[in-house]
Specification:
With 398 residues, this protein is mostly helical. It is built from 14 helices and four strands. The strands form two sheets. The protein has a two-stranded antiparallel sheet. Strand 1 and strand 2 form a beta hairpin.
Length: 398
């Protein structure tokens, strides 16, 4: 049987031993570097070459790629006493929604810009609310969530599954019925569009059936499972259907399991990343009810993630070592087995050292939430607290 991952995309684990002191020091170093790199309200943070879209000097404001995500992460770390505060954070947060409306991003990929969680206005508004906690953005946040309810992409980054997570978080934090109703509106439409084993995405001008967390089945399943109590009489049916697809899509060998990027097409690549592959499936579906077969597959997906090792591609959350470590944290939370926490912490220390190496090689850090260094700082924070919640998707408004 062909390998379930590409060895050339990974490297051997080369981590210092875990220690709380070393983790705290790495968090502070990453945060201070980001704070020092901040260039003010108009220029924000410098872009990395791998993240560029269009003008290399264009300021990005989205949660995934821009200032909203970085500001949210720095605020979260500062509130936990792990990093200094960014001077002018409140002013920065207040400027982000209008700045994005004046200069929406990635419009060549998704015209007109969707009010999505990771690339659009909803995520910016949610980040601002988490930072400011004054309720001034909530009317606009509700508007954007409802405006994204029937997004045809049918995936988390652009579509309604992402904004469902925003609605669900607001429902839990406020108990206001408007957020419950917004979640249910999106969920009903999402379920109505589920005609095959997995959803079919209309994405970037093509149709495809992705399985992963970033653009496919797993991300949609995460949104439905996170708000499972709001599904009422449909909860058991939807949950069973998710579990069935999870099992049917799995490919197994030698005690490990993998999920191919596309449900209906054979591909040569078998990425082991949060966005595509076993780590995102495990992280997204760790909330399924206990079941012997589900538990076995989740562990097998975690085992593949561990055996594959750190990613050469990057250290970040989306397609880097930090994102993969959350699969291991999720398994620790589900099973209570300390081995998974130990493994997550080894990945975290490796990722912290990788951040240092890359910063030394390029002369500066990488300043985004999902592809950059602050994602590693958040992983280290999660390892300190044994917290499996995936950044921004798990608990954006603590």
């Amino acid at each position: 049987m062909e390998p379930l991952y590409d060895h050339a995309e990974h490297r051997a684990l080369n981590a210092r031993p875990w220690s709380e002191a070393a983790a705290r020091a790495a968090i502070e170093t990453i945060a201070r570097d980001a704070i020092e790199a901040y260039r003010g309200l108009e220029r924000l943070w410098p872009n990395a070459a791998a993240d560029l879209e269009g003008d290399p000097d264009a300021p990005f404001r989205s949660a995934y790629l821009g200032a909203a995500g970085v500001a949210w992460a720095l605020d979260r770390l500062a509130r936990d006493g792990l990093a200094p505060e960014l001077i002018g954070l409140a002013e920065l947060a207040d400027s982000l929604p209008d700045g994005f409306r004046r200069a929406p991003e990635l419009i060549d990929l998704a015209p007109p810009p969707a009010p999505s969680l990771l690339f659009g206005e909803s995520g910016i508004l949610l980040a601002v609310e988490a930072i400011r906690r004054d309720g001034r953005q909530l009317a606009d946040l509700e508007r954007t969530i409802r405006g994204n309810a029937h997004n045809p992409t049918l995936e988390l980054c652009w579509g309604s599954p992402g904004t469902m997570l925003a609605a669900q978080h607001m429902w839990r934090s406020t108990g206001e019925e408007r957020w419950r109703d917004a979640w249910r509106d999106s969920a009903s439409w999402l379920i109505s569009q589920w005609h095959e084993l997995v959803w079919v995405q209309d994405l970037y001008g093509t149709t495809c059936a992705y399985t992963g967390a970033g653009h496919g089945f797993a991300g949609n399943a995460l949104a439905l499972l996170a708000g499972r109590e709001l599904l009422d009489e449909r909860a058991d049916e939807v949950t069973a259907r998710i579990a069935d697809a999870f099992r049917r899509l799995a490919v197994e060998t030698d005690g490990v399991a993998q999920w191919c990027p596309l449900a209906d097409t054979e591909t040569e690549r078998h990425p082991v990343q949060w966005c595509h592959g076993a780590p995102g499936l495990v992280t997204s579906l760790a909330g399924l009810p206990p079941d012997e077969e589900t538990d076995r597959l989740l562990r097998a997906g975690g085992e593949l993630t561990w055996r594959a090792g750190p990613l050469i591609k990057g250290v970040g959350l989306c397609h880097g070592t930090a994102g993969n470590a959350y699969a291991l944290l999720s398994l620790h939370a589900r099973t209570g087995d300390e081995l998974w926490l130990q493994r997550a912490r080894m990945f975290a220390m490796d990722a912290a050292d990788d951040v240092d190496r890359r910063r030394e090689a390029t002369g500066r850090g990488r300043y985004t939430l999902f592809t950059g260094d602050v994602g590693v700082a958040l992983l280290l924070q999660s390892c300190l607290h044994a917290d499996p919640a995936f950044p921004f998707l798990g608990e954006p408004c603590p």
